[in-house]
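Bench log. Compound arrived from synthesis this morning; before running ITC I wanted a structural hypothesis for how C2E sits in the protein. Inputs:
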Amino acid sequence: MAANQVIFREGEAGDDAYILESGRIEISMGEGDAQRVIAVLEPGEIFGEMALIANAPRSATATTIEPCTLLVLRRNRLMKPIETADPIMRLTIQMMVERLNDASRWKAGQPLISQGSEAQRRAFAEVRELALRRVRTERELRRAIEKDELALHYQPIVGIADGSLAGYEALMRWNHPEQGFVPPARFIPLAEESGMVVQMGRWALERGLQEHAAIAAVYRTVHPGQPPPFISINVSAAQLHDLSEIDRFAGIIEAAGVEPDQIKLEITESLMADDPEHAAEALGRLKDLGVTLAIDDFGTGYSSLSYLHRFPLDTLKIDRSFVSRMDHDMASRLLVRAIVDLAADLGLQTVAEGVETEAEYAELAELGCDFGQGYLMARPCSASDLRGMLAQ
Ligand code: C2E
Ligand code: CA
Ligand code: CA
Ligand code: CA
């Protein structure tokens, strides 16, 4: 580009940002006599990004003062990562752009108009709302852990063939000081969104294993020589984004003194669907801890049967929705049968979730499903209730 060329002008709509490769560029504000140079850019500097980030017209004019070469950064290239970033990060970036804009206008002797269209203000308010909500939830959930407001309940999992206790699933509960008991459906998604699920999941593993050690001790005195039931713990995909979390798991398991083969981790299909490479790595490392792995809610979501053999799995948990429709819906019954058969072929065990009726139980027995969990057999209960049940 030759010298003295306008790249963009104040007030224009902006679609691209630029990186200056060679030459020099002048950024100015105002027009005619009021025009002031606010910056001279050197090679390596980025410019034109502010209008894109603020979703506003160009706040300044860019002119070459020497022959220049430019690298064009398309809107999408710049904005995709920002739009998908954490909302607090987005809010921070937008605020910084706004302040920088004000500072530049002040420096250039321009009136400080906090301009911006209605749509822009709305978009800004939305990001702010999202960011605030996230910060608040995060604070509340962190407080819940600190104030010991979280608890685990345990729901028995029985062998379908003889009804014996095979294990139990740890299910999180939040005893909120004002709202009372909050079911996990209302806070786990928020915990996942805010990232707090990482700490909460760690807490669940720690607490679950402590309580499991006590339950298993009771079991051993009542059933000497028999292997104690396993404990199943839910692990959110978000807990495994960072593989170093698995080292922490190892530390927690070691500290609790629980044999890893008594621990089953339940992971949803989304982990495998989102990034199969990463999932294979994460599941492989978990498996190396000596625990067993289950896919939760199997059959919902993204079920691609093709991935099953790629991961070191032990168990499929058949989603409640299929189990509860099994007695009156042929398709669901066929699906449960297909899952049980497939699992058998792959050497995996099956757990049917949400068994509520005798008819469902009988059906599952006939299909050869290994384990069942549901209100028919038992509802989730506290650790002390479970110990009491086992002591009888
Ligand atoms: P999930 O992992 O599918 O857990 C089974 C849910 O089904 C539990 O709900 C359980 O109480 C319920 N359930 C069991 N049997 C029956 C039945 O016969 N009928 C009916 N209608 N429901 C039955 P809950 O405890 O409300 O948990 C809901 C979800 O919250 C869980 O679904 C799981 O996705 C999540 N969750 C719970 N605890 C944790 C946790 O510690 N970590 C993570 N990441 N998620 C958790
Ligand atoms: Ca589960
Ligand atoms: Ca489930
Ligand atoms: Ca039913």
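What the model suggests: Residues 155, 171-172, 183-185, 188, 197, 201, 204, 234, 236, 296-297, 320, 353-356, 373-375, 380 surround C2E (ligand 1) (CB under 6 Å). The chain has two domains: 6-125, 148-391.
ITC booked for Thursday regardless.
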